[in-house]
Amino acid sequence: MMRPILGRCAARCAPRCAPLGATARPASRVLLGTSTWRPTRQYSIKAEAAESSKPQGLDASKLTVEKTTKPKPLKKAEELVFGQAFTDHMLSVEWNKDAGWLAPKITPYQNLSLDPASSVFHYAFECFEGMKAYKDKAGQIRLFRPDRNMERLNKSAARIALPNFDPSTLLDLIAELVKLDSRFIPEQRGYSLYLRPTMIGTQKTLGVGAPGSALLYVIASPVGPYYPTGFKAISLEATDYAVRAWPGGVGDKKLGANYAPCIVPQREAMSRGFQQNLWLFGDEQFVTEVGTMNMFVALRNKDTGANELLTAPLDGTILEGVTRDSVLALAREKLVPEGWNIVERKYTMQELSDAADEGRFLEAFGSGTAAIVSPVRSISWKGKLVDCGLKPHEESGELATKMKGWIEARQYGDEEHEWSYTC
Amino acid sequence: MMRPILGRCAARCAPRCAPLGATARPASRVLLGTSTWRPTRQYSIKAEAAESSKPQGLDASKLTVEKTTKPKPLKKAEELVFGQAFTDHMLSVEWNKDAGWLAPKITPYQNLSLDPASSVFHYAFECFEGMKAYKDKAGQIRLFRPDRNMERLNKSAARIALPNFDPSTLLDLIAELVKLDSRFIPEQRGYSLYLRPTMIGTQKTLGVGAPGSALLYVIASPVGPYYPTGFKAISLEATDYAVRAWPGGVGDKKLGANYAPCIVPQREAMSRGFQQNLWLFGDEQFVTEVGTMNMFVALRNKDTGANELLTAPLDGTILEGVTRDSVLALAREKLVPEGWNIVERKYTMQELSDAADEGRFLEAFGSGTAAIVSPVRSISWKGKLVDCGLKPHEESGELATKMKGWIEARQYGDEEHEWSYTC
C-alpha cells in the first residue's frame, strides 16, 4: 500500500510529522470534560484500553510452566538490596490486537528479545505495579490488597492505549509464580518478595499510535525491610522549580513516563542533603506527594485544636497509592474514635510552615509499598527548614510507628483481614 | 551490603517507597529558578547528563563494522510506509558509568536482548531523534541540519540523567551507517531515509535513580513523501480536556514520556473525524502545538493590516522543532522583505476564531521532520469549526507550498546551504 488509508495515518504518523490529510469536513462536536479539578477548568480523559478485533481474554488454564534447570542460590537476608536480585522464574503473556491474550508462560528468568523499533523504547508505552508477597507465621504465602494493584494496572494500561485483562486471572497467575518461587520469600518479619507486574508496548514500527502488540510480565525480587534497626527519618526538599504532574496529565497513573523526568530534581535534592523531593504545585504551593511516596501530615487544627491527619486528594495529579488508601482506612478505623479528623484536601507549604511556627505540626510521613510509612523530619522550603515535629532523638512519630504496626499486622496475617490474600 | 549506604538509597529507592533516612540536619538553601515562564512562577531545571567516573568519550575510531550476510531486498518506493521497514544495519554504542562510552558497533539490524528489570521498561529512560538522509541529483548523500538533532538529543538525555556524547562524533558514526546502507535511500524527490537515533537506560535493577548503563543506537527506515499527489489539508481538534505539557515539565524535550500519554486523546480526536489534536494550555486556551508537529498560523493583523506568521514561543512546553526553526529562519529571510511580520508569542484559540470570523485567517500549517509542512483546513473548538482560510478546492495555502519548496531545496541540495550536511 502506498499510503496509509485515511484515518489510519494519524494513528501511525511520525513524531513531528504531518499525517495524511482528510479532505472531508469533520462534524463539529462540543468537547467538555466531566470531572472538575479547579473551578475554572475541566479535565477528563476517557482512557480506553486497546481492543482486539477477536478478543481472547487472559486464560490461566493455558498456563505453561518451564522450570529452571539452574536454580539460583538464595542470598542471605542481610545481603538483599531492593530490586537487584530476582527469583528463578518470571511470568509473561503476549498480547496482540488480532488474537488478544496468548497463552501465559512461566519460564526461567531471562532477557527479553525485542526489535529496536519496539514502541516501548521510543514512546514510553509502559506501566507497572509494585506489590509484595509475605510469609506468615504458619509459612502461608500472603499478598496485600493485590486486587488494588490489578485494578490500577488496568487503569494505567488503558490510559496509554495498552490492553486490559481480567484482574482475578492475572492474580491467579501471579500466585502461581509466587508459589513456584516461594523459597525466595524470606521468612523474617519485615522481609518480603517484591513483585513487579509490567506491561510494555512491543509493536515494532515507528508510527506514533496505539501499539498493536504488548507484553505483560511479572518479575520478583526478595527484599528486606527498609528499617532493620527501626525507623530513620528523612528530610525533603520542597520542589517548585520543576513539576511532577499536572491537571489533565497522567500523574495519577503508574506509568514509566512519570519517573524518568523526576531523577534530575531528585539528584539535585540529594546534592543538597535531602533524601527526596516534596513536589509542590501551582502558585499556591500545594503539597502533592514525595518523590516516590504519598505524603501525610498530622497537625493540630488552629481553630478547633483537634488533631488532623491530612493528605492531598486524588485529583488526578496524585498517585492512587494502595498504602495511602490503607493508611486512610486504618486512620478512620482507629484514630477517629480517638478524636482525630482524617482529611483529604489540598494544603499548602505555607500551612505547614505556619503549623511548625505555632507548634501545631505533630508529625509527617510518606506512604508507599516498600517502606510502608517513612517518617519525615524536616522540609526545606524557601530557604528555611520546616520542622515536622520530631524530637531530635526521635526517628519516628507515634502515629507513623502505630500505622506501620497496624499495616504489617494485616500484611503478615497476624490479623486476619480481607486485605490479606492467601495464595 | 545490608542496606544501601546513606545518600545512595534515595537515588535507588523503590517507587512509592521511602528511602533510607538521613539523620543529619540538612543545610537550608534558597531554591529559585532563573528562567521565567509566567509572571507569578519561576521554573528552571538544570539538566545534568550522567557522568562516568572514568569518562571515556564516544570514539569513532573504535568503530567496528559487521556487515550483514543476508541483505534485504529493496521495497518499491510506493510500498514504503513510515517506520515499518528498516535497513540492513544498525549503529549501537553501550555506555556505563564506570567505563564511559564503549566501542561503537555497526551490526546487522537485530533484536535487543535486555534484562526484564532494565530501567527503560519501568521508568521511561528513553529519548530519541528524528532526522532524514537524502540523495541529491548527483547521488550525493545529504543530512539536513543534523547538528540540531545531535544537540537536542544531548539535551533530552541530560534531562533524564542519561549520558551525553560528542555531537560531531555521533554524526560521523551516523554518516558511516548511512553510507553503508545508502542503497536504501530512495532516489526520487520526496523520498528519504528516516533516521532514528535512540538512547535508553539499561540498568537492570528496579531502584529509581539515574541509570548506571545505557545504550545509544540508530536505526534507519526508507520513507516516501507524505504527499505524493500534493498536499492534503488536515483538520485538528483543539484539545483542552487533556494537557500535553506543563511549565516545569519536559514538553520541550524529545522524551518517550511525552508520547504515550497523547495516544488516547489522539484516538478520541480521530473518532470524531480529526487527524490530530491541537493542544491547548491554560484558562486562556493558548495554542501550543499539534499532536506531532509545531503549529504556525498566518493572520492579517487586526490593527495594522500587516501579514503575520505566528507560532508559540519556546517557553519550555513546546518541542524545539528543527523544522520549526527552519520555517522561522526562512520566513525571516524571504517573507520579511515582502512585508510580513514573523512573531513568536503566545496566542489563543479565541484570537484564531476572531481572525476567522473577520476574514483575517490566511492559512495554518504544522511543521515537522516527516511532512515538512502540513496544511490545516480547520480546527474544531467549543463546538464550532474554525476555518483556517483554505478555499474548498485548495489543499494547501500559498505560504505552506512555498515554505515546503524552500526547505526541500536545501534538503535535497538544489540550493547549496550550510543547513545541508554532505556525508
TrEMBL record, chains A, B:
- Reaction catalysed? L-valine + 2-oxoglutarate = 3-methyl-2-oxobutanoate + L-glutamate; L-isoleucine + 2-oxoglutarate = (S)-3-methyl-2-oxopentanoate + L-glutamate; L-leucine + 2-oxoglutarate = 4-methyl-2-oxopentanoate + L-glutamate
The UniProt keywords, alphabetically, are:
Amino-acid biosynthesis, Aminotransferase, Branched-chain amino acid biosynthesis, Pyridoxal phosphate, Transferase
Which InterPro entries does the record associate with it?
A: Aminotrans_IV, Aminotrans_IV_CS, Aminotransferase-like, B_amino_transII, BCAT-like_C, BCAT-like_N, BCAT_family
Q: Where are the transmembrane segments?
A: none
Is Transferase included in the keywords of this UniProt record? yes
Q: Which Gene3D superfamilies match?
A: 3.30.470.10, D-amino Acid Aminotransferase, subunit A, domain 2
The EC number of this protein is 2.6.1.42
Q: According to its record, what are the GO cellular component terms?
A: mitochondrion
Q: Write one Gene Ontology MF term.
A: branched-chain-amino-acid transaminase activity
The cofactors required by this protein are: pyridoxal 5'-phosphate
Set out the biological process GO terms recorded for this chain's protein: L-leucine biosynthetic process; L-valine biosynthetic process
Residues recorded with modification N6-(pyridoxal phosphate)lysine: 254
User: Hey, which family's this protein in?
Assistant: Belongs to the class-IV pyridoxal-phosphate-dependent aminotransferase family.
NCBIfam families hit by this protein: ilvE_II, PRK13357.1
State the protein's name. Branched-chain-amino-acid aminotransferase
Annotated source species: Schizothecium vesticola
Give the source lineage, highest ranks first.
Eukaryota, Fungi, Dikarya, Ascomycota, Pezizomycotina
